[in-house]
Amino acid sequence: MTKFKTYKSALDWIYKREQEGVKLGLDNIKKLLDLTGNPQNSFPSIHIAGTNGKGSTSVFLSYILSNSGYKIGLLTKPHIKDFRERIRINNEKISEYDIIDIVNNSYKIAEKINVTFFEYFVYLAYEYFKSKNVDISIIEAGLGGRLDATNIINSIICIITNIDFDHTKTLGNRLDYIAFEKASILKPGVKVITAENKKIPFNVIRRMAEALNLNVVKLDDNIKYELIDFNEDFYKANFYSKKEKYLNLKIPLLGEHQLRNSALSILTSEELIKLGYNLNSQTIIKGIENTVWHGRFTLIKDNNRTIIIDVGHNPDGQLKVFKTYNQLYGSKKPLLLIGAVKGKDFESMLKIWKGYAKYFYIAPPDNKRALSLNEMKYFAEKLDLPFSAYDNSIIAIKSALKQKDDNIIITGSFYLAGEIWNYLQKTTKFSSLPSP
What we know:
Elements lengths: L6 H10 L10 H9 L9 E5 L4 H14 L4 E4 L11 E3 L2 E2 L2 H17 L4 H15 L4 E5 L14 E6 L7 H4 L3 H9 L7 E4 L4 H13 L4 E3 H4 E8 L4 E7 L3 E7 L5 H18 L6 H9 L8 E5 L2 E5 L5 H15 L5 E4 L7 H8 L5 E4 L10 H10 L4 E3 L3 H9 L6 E4 L2 H13 L10
Parallel strand pairs: 1-5, 1-6, 2-5, 6-7, 7-8, 13-17, 14-15, 14-17, 15-16
Antiparallel strand pairs: 2-3, 3-4, 9-10, 10-11, 12-13
Helix pairs in contact: 1-4, 3-10, 3-11, 4-5, 7-8, 12-13
Protein backbone atom coordinates (compact mmCIF):
# COMPACT_ATOMS: atom_id res chain seq x y z
CA MET A 1 0.00 0.00 0.00
CA THR A 2 1.27 3.48 -0.92
CA LYS A 3 1.95 5.46 2.25
CA PHE A 4 2.47 8.93 0.76
CA LYS A 5 -0.21 10.04 -1.67
CA THR A 6 0.52 13.77 -1.76
CA TYR A 7 3.61 15.90 -2.21
CA LYS A 8 2.98 17.60 1.12
CA SER A 9 2.92 14.30 3.03
CA ALA A 10 6.14 13.13 1.34
CA LEU A 11 7.85 16.47 1.99
CA ASP A 12 6.70 16.46 5.61
CA TRP A 13 8.34 13.05 6.01
CA ILE A 14 11.59 14.35 4.47
CA TYR A 15 11.64 17.30 6.87
CA LYS A 16 10.92 14.97 9.76
CA ARG A 17 14.40 13.57 9.10
CA GLU A 18 15.70 16.78 10.71
CA GLN A 19 14.96 15.21 14.08
CA GLU A 20 18.00 13.00 13.43
CA GLY A 21 20.16 16.12 13.58
CA VAL A 22 23.39 16.54 11.62
CA LYS A 23 25.70 13.54 11.34
CA LEU A 24 29.08 14.43 9.89
CA GLY A 25 30.49 11.26 8.40
CA LEU A 26 29.88 8.88 5.54
CA ASP A 27 28.78 5.67 7.29
CA ASN A 28 25.06 6.41 7.20
CA ILE A 29 24.92 7.62 3.60
CA LYS A 30 27.00 4.61 2.53
CA LYS A 31 24.48 2.27 4.16
CA LEU A 32 21.57 4.02 2.49
CA LEU A 33 23.20 3.98 -0.93
CA ASP A 34 24.27 0.33 -0.58
CA LEU A 35 20.73 -0.69 0.36
CA THR A 36 19.25 1.18 -2.62
CA GLY A 37 21.64 -0.11 -5.28
CA ASN A 38 24.20 2.73 -5.24
CA PRO A 39 22.40 5.02 -7.71
CA GLN A 40 25.29 7.50 -7.61
CA ASN A 41 27.43 5.06 -9.62
CA SER A 42 25.07 5.21 -12.60
CA PHE A 43 26.51 8.48 -13.94
CA PRO A 44 29.75 10.51 -13.84
CA SER A 45 29.80 13.63 -11.66
CA ILE A 46 31.43 17.01 -11.28
CA HIS A 47 31.89 17.68 -7.57
CA ILE A 48 32.13 21.32 -6.43
CA ALA A 49 33.32 22.46 -3.00
CA GLY A 50 34.37 25.87 -1.71
CA THR A 51 33.22 28.68 0.56
CA ASN A 52 31.39 30.81 -2.01
CA GLY A 53 30.58 30.59 -5.70
CA LYS A 54 29.66 26.89 -5.70
CA GLY A 55 26.04 27.43 -6.68
CA SER A 56 26.69 29.98 -9.42
CA THR A 57 29.53 27.93 -10.93
CA SER A 58 27.33 24.81 -10.80
CA VAL A 59 24.48 26.56 -12.58
CA PHE A 60 26.72 28.11 -15.26
CA LEU A 61 28.05 24.61 -15.98
CA SER A 62 24.57 23.13 -16.02
CA TYR A 63 23.42 25.63 -18.64
CA ILE A 64 26.58 25.14 -20.71
CA LEU A 65 26.24 21.36 -20.77
CA SER A 66 22.48 21.27 -21.30
CA ASN A 67 22.86 23.84 -24.09
CA SER A 68 25.39 21.45 -25.64
CA GLY A 69 22.85 18.63 -25.80
CA TYR A 70 23.61 16.76 -22.57
CA LYS A 71 21.11 15.68 -19.95
CA ILE A 72 22.39 17.27 -16.74
CA GLY A 73 21.50 16.50 -13.15
CA LEU A 74 22.09 19.39 -10.76
CA LEU A 75 22.18 19.24 -6.95
CA THR A 76 22.45 22.56 -5.10
CA LYS A 77 21.48 23.72 -1.64
CA PRO A 78 19.79 25.19 0.21
CA HIS A 79 16.67 26.35 -1.59
CA ILE A 80 15.11 29.81 -1.48
CA LYS A 81 11.41 29.03 -1.60
CA ASP A 82 10.71 25.47 -2.74
CA PHE A 83 12.53 22.26 -1.77
CA ARG A 84 12.39 21.15 -5.41
CA GLU A 85 14.86 23.91 -6.35
CA ARG A 86 17.61 21.70 -4.93
CA ILE A 87 17.26 18.94 -7.53
CA ARG A 88 17.03 19.71 -11.25
CA ILE A 89 17.55 18.12 -14.64
CA ASN A 90 18.42 20.52 -17.45
CA ASN A 91 17.51 23.30 -15.02
CA GLU A 92 13.94 22.06 -14.50
CA LYS A 93 12.95 21.25 -10.92
CA ILE A 94 12.19 17.68 -9.90
CA SER A 95 8.45 17.03 -10.11
CA GLU A 96 6.25 16.51 -7.08
CA TYR A 97 5.28 13.12 -8.51
CA ASP A 98 8.91 11.95 -8.66
CA ILE A 99 9.48 12.94 -5.04
CA ILE A 100 6.35 11.04 -3.94
CA ASP A 101 7.44 7.97 -5.93
CA ILE A 102 11.01 7.86 -4.62
CA VAL A 103 9.96 8.47 -1.00
CA ASN A 104 7.39 5.66 -1.18
CA ASN A 105 10.04 3.27 -2.48
CA SER A 106 12.70 4.13 0.10
CA TYR A 107 11.23 5.51 3.33
CA LYS A 108 11.28 2.16 5.16
CA ILE A 109 15.00 1.72 4.51
CA ALA A 110 15.73 5.34 5.49
CA GLU A 111 13.79 5.05 8.74
CA LYS A 112 15.51 1.79 9.63
CA ILE A 113 18.97 3.39 9.62
CA ASN A 114 17.89 6.80 10.98
CA VAL A 115 18.88 8.82 7.94
CA THR A 116 19.20 12.60 8.38
CA PHE A 117 17.46 15.25 6.26
CA PHE A 118 20.61 16.07 4.29
CA GLU A 119 21.55 12.43 3.76
CA TYR A 120 18.11 11.65 2.40
CA PHE A 121 18.07 14.74 0.18
CA VAL A 122 21.39 13.65 -1.37
CA TYR A 123 20.09 10.11 -1.92
CA LEU A 124 16.87 11.49 -3.43
CA ALA A 125 18.86 13.45 -5.99
CA TYR A 126 21.03 10.47 -6.94
CA GLU A 127 18.01 8.18 -7.29
CA TYR A 128 16.20 10.75 -9.44
CA PHE A 129 19.23 11.28 -11.69
CA LYS A 130 19.60 7.51 -12.13
CA SER A 131 15.91 7.08 -12.97
CA LYS A 132 16.10 9.77 -15.67
CA ASN A 133 19.41 8.50 -17.15
CA VAL A 134 21.37 11.74 -16.87
CA ASP A 135 24.60 11.99 -18.86
CA ILE A 136 26.45 13.72 -16.03
CA SER A 137 25.61 15.30 -12.69
CA ILE A 138 26.90 18.45 -11.05
CA ILE A 139 26.99 18.08 -7.28
CA GLU A 140 27.45 21.01 -4.89
CA ALA A 141 29.06 19.87 -1.64
CA GLY A 142 27.29 20.70 1.61
CA LEU A 143 29.35 21.40 4.71
CA GLY A 144 33.08 21.21 3.96
CA GLY A 145 33.66 18.11 1.87
CA ARG A 146 35.56 15.43 3.74
CA LEU A 147 32.63 14.21 5.85
CA ASP A 148 29.88 15.58 3.62
CA ALA A 149 27.17 13.19 2.43
CA THR A 150 27.85 14.18 -1.19
CA ASN A 151 31.38 12.77 -0.96
CA ILE A 152 30.49 9.33 -2.33
CA ILE A 153 30.22 9.88 -6.06
CA ASN A 154 31.89 8.84 -9.29
CA SER A 155 33.75 12.11 -9.84
CA ILE A 156 35.53 12.95 -13.05
CA ILE A 157 36.26 16.57 -12.08
CA CYS A 158 36.60 18.14 -8.63
CA ILE A 159 36.33 21.92 -8.39
CA ILE A 160 37.29 24.01 -5.37
CA THR A 161 35.96 27.52 -5.92
CA ASN A 162 37.66 29.39 -3.08
CA ILE A 163 38.59 29.07 0.58
CA ASP A 164 37.36 31.56 3.15
CA PHE A 165 35.96 31.62 6.68
CA ASP A 166 32.57 30.00 7.22
CA HIS A 167 31.24 27.25 9.50
CA THR A 168 34.38 27.77 11.58
CA LYS A 169 33.07 25.78 14.56
CA THR A 170 32.96 22.70 12.36
CA LEU A 171 35.63 23.32 9.72
CA GLY A 172 38.16 25.19 11.87
CA ASN A 173 39.23 28.81 12.19
CA ARG A 174 42.31 28.63 9.98
CA LEU A 175 42.33 28.69 6.19
CA ASP A 176 44.60 25.64 5.98
CA TYR A 177 42.14 23.63 8.12
CA ILE A 178 39.23 24.73 5.95
CA ALA A 179 41.19 23.97 2.76
CA PHE A 180 41.92 20.45 4.03
CA GLU A 181 38.23 19.77 4.66
CA LYS A 182 37.17 21.02 1.24
CA ALA A 183 40.04 19.45 -0.73
CA SER A 184 39.13 16.09 0.78
CA ILE A 185 36.65 15.65 -2.08
CA LEU A 186 39.64 14.84 -4.32
CA LYS A 187 39.82 11.25 -5.55
CA PRO A 188 42.34 9.26 -7.61
CA GLY A 189 42.13 9.90 -11.33
CA VAL A 190 40.03 13.09 -11.26
CA LYS A 191 40.78 16.45 -12.81
CA VAL A 192 41.33 19.11 -10.12
CA ILE A 193 40.39 22.72 -10.84
CA THR A 194 40.51 25.65 -8.43
CA ALA A 195 39.99 29.41 -8.45
CA GLU A 196 41.74 29.72 -5.07
CA ASN A 197 44.87 31.89 -5.24
CA LYS A 198 45.77 32.62 -1.61
CA LYS A 199 49.11 30.96 -0.88
CA ILE A 200 48.26 28.97 2.26
CA PRO A 201 44.98 27.33 1.16
CA PHE A 202 46.25 26.79 -2.40
CA ASN A 203 49.31 24.96 -1.11
CA VAL A 204 47.07 22.66 0.92
CA ILE A 205 45.02 21.87 -2.19
CA ARG A 206 48.18 21.31 -4.23
CA ARG A 207 49.78 18.98 -1.66
CA MET A 208 46.61 16.93 -1.29
CA ALA A 209 46.37 16.62 -5.06
CA GLU A 210 50.01 15.59 -5.37
CA ALA A 211 49.46 12.87 -2.76
CA LEU A 212 46.96 11.35 -5.21
CA ASN A 213 49.26 11.96 -8.23
CA LEU A 214 46.94 14.68 -9.52
CA ASN A 215 47.81 17.99 -11.14
CA VAL A 216 45.96 21.14 -10.11
CA VAL A 217 44.56 23.28 -12.92
CA LYS A 218 44.65 26.80 -11.48
CA LEU A 219 42.20 29.35 -12.88
CA ASP A 220 44.56 32.32 -12.88
CA ASP A 221 47.22 30.37 -14.78
CA ASN A 222 44.81 29.41 -17.54
CA ILE A 223 42.20 32.13 -18.08
CA LYS A 224 42.39 35.91 -18.02
CA TYR A 225 39.33 38.12 -18.12
CA GLU A 226 38.46 41.80 -18.30
CA LEU A 227 35.28 43.70 -17.55
CA ILE A 228 34.13 45.80 -20.51
CA ASP A 229 30.81 47.21 -19.37
CA PHE A 230 28.05 46.64 -16.86
CA ASN A 231 24.46 47.65 -16.17
CA GLU A 232 21.43 46.33 -14.32
CA ASP A 233 20.86 43.65 -16.96
CA PHE A 234 24.31 42.09 -17.38
CA TYR A 235 28.05 42.40 -16.94
CA LYS A 236 29.94 42.26 -20.26
CA ALA A 237 33.44 40.79 -20.30
CA ASN A 238 36.14 39.23 -22.46
CA PHE A 239 37.74 35.92 -21.46
CA TYR A 240 41.03 34.63 -22.82
CA SER A 241 42.02 31.01 -22.27
CA LYS A 242 45.09 29.29 -23.71
CA LYS A 243 42.78 27.78 -26.32
CA GLU A 244 40.02 30.30 -27.10
CA LYS A 245 38.83 33.88 -26.91
CA TYR A 246 35.34 34.44 -25.54
CA LEU A 247 34.54 38.02 -26.48
CA ASN A 248 31.72 40.35 -25.42
CA LEU A 249 30.18 37.69 -23.20
CA LYS A 250 27.08 39.03 -21.43
CA ILE A 251 26.84 37.54 -17.93
CA PRO A 252 23.28 37.76 -16.57
CA LEU A 253 24.34 37.21 -12.95
CA LEU A 254 25.42 40.62 -11.66
CA GLY A 255 28.71 41.48 -9.98
CA GLU A 256 32.39 41.24 -10.86
CA HIS A 257 32.65 38.08 -8.76
CA GLN A 258 30.42 36.40 -11.35
CA LEU A 259 33.16 36.97 -13.92
CA ARG A 260 35.34 34.69 -11.84
CA ASN A 261 32.60 32.09 -11.53
CA SER A 262 32.06 32.33 -15.30
CA ALA A 263 35.78 31.90 -15.92
CA LEU A 264 35.80 28.83 -13.69
CA SER A 265 32.91 27.32 -15.66
CA ILE A 266 34.71 28.08 -18.95
CA LEU A 267 37.90 26.44 -17.70
CA THR A 268 35.95 23.39 -16.54
CA SER A 269 34.22 23.20 -19.92
CA GLU A 270 37.60 23.17 -21.67
CA GLU A 271 38.73 20.34 -19.39
CA LEU A 272 35.53 18.45 -20.27
CA ILE A 273 36.40 18.86 -23.95
CA LYS A 274 39.74 17.15 -23.23
CA LEU A 275 37.76 14.30 -21.68
CA GLY A 276 35.79 13.89 -24.90
CA TYR A 277 32.68 15.97 -24.21
CA ASN A 278 31.24 17.72 -27.25
CA LEU A 279 31.38 21.40 -26.27
CA ASN A 280 32.63 24.44 -28.18
CA SER A 281 33.09 28.15 -27.61
CA GLN A 282 29.64 29.03 -28.97
CA THR A 283 27.76 26.57 -26.76
CA ILE A 284 29.82 27.74 -23.78
CA ILE A 285 28.98 31.39 -24.45
CA LYS A 286 25.32 30.65 -25.09
CA GLY A 287 25.07 28.57 -21.92
CA ILE A 288 26.48 31.33 -19.71
CA GLU A 289 24.37 34.04 -21.37
CA ASN A 290 21.19 32.01 -20.86
CA THR A 291 21.82 31.24 -17.18
CA VAL A 292 19.04 32.00 -14.71
CA TRP A 293 19.86 31.81 -11.00
CA HIS A 294 17.55 33.68 -8.64
CA GLY A 295 18.64 35.19 -5.34
CA ARG A 296 22.04 36.27 -6.62
CA PHE A 297 21.72 40.04 -6.71
CA THR A 298 18.21 39.69 -8.13
CA LEU A 299 16.73 43.10 -8.97
CA ILE A 300 13.05 43.92 -8.50
CA LYS A 301 11.98 47.29 -9.90
CA ASP A 302 9.50 49.34 -7.87
CA ASN A 303 8.90 52.79 -9.38
CA ASN A 304 11.83 55.00 -8.33
CA ARG A 305 13.65 52.36 -6.36
CA THR A 306 15.16 48.91 -6.72
CA ILE A 307 14.71 45.98 -4.33
CA ILE A 308 17.66 43.59 -4.31
CA ILE A 309 17.58 40.04 -2.98
CA ASP A 310 20.89 38.27 -2.42
CA VAL A 311 21.52 35.11 -0.40
CA GLY A 312 25.05 36.12 0.65
CA HIS A 313 25.36 34.58 4.11
CA ASN A 314 28.94 35.10 5.27
CA PRO A 315 31.37 38.06 5.29
CA ASP A 316 32.92 37.16 1.92
CA GLY A 317 29.46 36.91 0.38
CA GLN A 318 28.38 40.22 1.92
CA LEU A 319 31.48 41.94 0.60
CA LYS A 320 30.52 40.83 -2.91
CA VAL A 321 26.99 42.20 -2.43
CA PHE A 322 28.44 45.49 -1.16
CA LYS A 323 30.89 45.86 -4.06
CA THR A 324 28.22 45.06 -6.65
CA TYR A 325 25.74 47.52 -5.15
CA ASN A 326 28.38 50.25 -4.92
CA GLN A 327 29.40 49.65 -8.53
CA LEU A 328 25.84 49.85 -9.84
CA TYR A 329 24.34 52.53 -7.59
CA GLY A 330 27.26 54.46 -6.12
CA SER A 331 26.20 57.12 -3.64
CA LYS A 332 22.52 56.04 -3.45
CA LYS A 333 22.67 54.61 0.06
CA PRO A 334 20.42 51.55 0.57
CA LEU A 335 18.23 50.31 3.35
CA LEU A 336 19.53 46.93 4.52
CA LEU A 337 17.17 44.21 5.71
CA ILE A 338 19.40 41.53 7.17
CA GLY A 339 19.22 38.40 9.31
CA ALA A 340 21.35 35.31 9.79
CA VAL A 341 21.50 31.84 11.26
CA LYS A 342 23.71 30.63 14.10
CA GLY A 343 27.34 30.02 13.31
CA LYS A 344 27.62 32.98 10.95
CA ASP A 345 29.88 35.96 11.63
CA PHE A 346 27.01 38.44 11.80
CA GLU A 347 29.12 41.22 13.29
CA SER A 348 31.55 41.13 10.37
CA MET A 349 28.65 41.11 7.93
CA LEU A 350 27.24 44.26 9.53
CA LYS A 351 30.65 45.97 9.60
CA ILE A 352 30.85 45.83 5.82
CA TRP A 353 27.78 48.05 5.55
CA LYS A 354 28.56 50.42 8.42
CA GLY A 355 28.72 54.02 7.19
CA TYR A 356 27.26 53.07 3.81
CA ALA A 357 23.80 51.64 4.43
CA LYS A 358 21.34 54.38 5.27
CA TYR A 359 19.39 52.28 7.79
CA PHE A 360 19.35 48.69 9.05
CA TYR A 361 16.24 46.53 9.45
CA ILE A 362 17.20 43.53 11.55
CA ALA A 363 15.02 40.41 11.69
CA PRO A 364 15.67 36.72 12.32
CA PRO A 365 14.70 34.24 9.62
CA ASP A 366 11.83 31.91 10.52
CA ASN A 367 14.09 28.94 11.18
CA LYS A 368 15.12 27.07 14.31
CA ARG A 369 18.77 27.78 13.46
CA ALA A 370 18.20 31.54 13.35
CA LEU A 371 20.41 33.86 15.33
CA SER A 372 18.20 35.34 18.05
CA LEU A 373 16.93 38.87 17.74
CA ASN A 374 18.72 39.81 20.95
CA GLU A 375 22.04 38.55 19.60
CA MET A 376 21.61 40.51 16.37
CA LYS A 377 20.59 43.65 18.29
CA TYR A 378 23.70 43.27 20.45
CA PHE A 379 26.00 43.48 17.42
CA ALA A 380 24.06 46.37 15.87
CA GLU A 381 24.29 48.33 19.12
CA LYS A 382 27.97 47.45 19.52
CA LEU A 383 28.66 48.91 16.07
CA ASP A 384 26.45 51.94 16.79
CA LEU A 385 24.33 51.35 13.69
CA PRO A 386 21.06 53.15 12.91
CA PHE A 387 18.61 50.25 13.11
CA SER A 388 15.23 48.88 14.04
CA ALA A 389 14.71 45.29 15.16
CA TYR A 390 11.71 43.15 14.25
CA ASP A 391 10.42 39.78 15.43
CA ASN A 392 10.05 38.58 11.86
CA SER A 393 11.10 39.53 8.35
CA ILE A 394 7.61 40.26 7.03
CA ILE A 395 7.05 43.08 9.52
CA ALA A 396 10.54 44.34 8.67
CA ILE A 397 9.98 44.43 4.89
CA LYS A 398 6.59 46.12 5.32
CA SER A 399 8.32 48.83 7.33
CA ALA A 400 11.15 49.22 4.82
CA LEU A 401 8.74 49.44 1.88
CA LYS A 402 7.16 52.54 3.45
CA GLN A 403 10.34 54.45 2.57
CA LYS A 404 9.25 55.11 -1.00
CA ASP A 405 12.44 56.19 -2.80
CA ASP A 406 15.17 54.18 -1.03
CA ASN A 407 16.69 51.08 -2.55
CA ILE A 408 16.29 48.02 -0.31
CA ILE A 409 18.73 45.12 -0.01
CA ILE A 410 17.48 41.86 1.52
CA THR A 411 20.38 39.63 2.46
CA GLY A 412 22.19 37.50 5.04
CA SER A 413 20.34 34.20 4.74
CA PHE A 414 18.69 31.87 2.21
CA TYR A 415 15.79 31.51 4.64
CA LEU A 416 15.29 35.25 4.96
CA ALA A 417 15.45 35.67 1.18
CA GLY A 418 12.83 32.95 0.76
CA GLU A 419 10.43 34.51 3.25
CA ILE A 420 10.62 37.92 1.58
CA TRP A 421 10.38 36.38 -1.90
CA ASN A 422 7.26 34.49 -0.89
CA TYR A 423 5.69 37.59 0.68
CA LEU A 424 6.38 39.79 -2.34
CA GLN A 425 4.91 37.23 -4.75
CA LYS A 426 1.66 37.28 -2.78
CA THR A 427 1.29 41.06 -3.07
CA THR A 428 -0.50 42.52 -6.08
CA LYS A 429 2.39 44.80 -7.00
CA PHE A 430 4.98 42.01 -7.21
CA SER A 431 2.77 39.07 -8.20
CA SER A 432 4.67 38.66 -11.51
CA LEU A 433 7.93 37.94 -9.64
CA PRO A 434 9.09 34.51 -10.93
CA SER A 435 9.63 31.61 -8.55
CA PRO A 436 13.25 30.60 -7.93
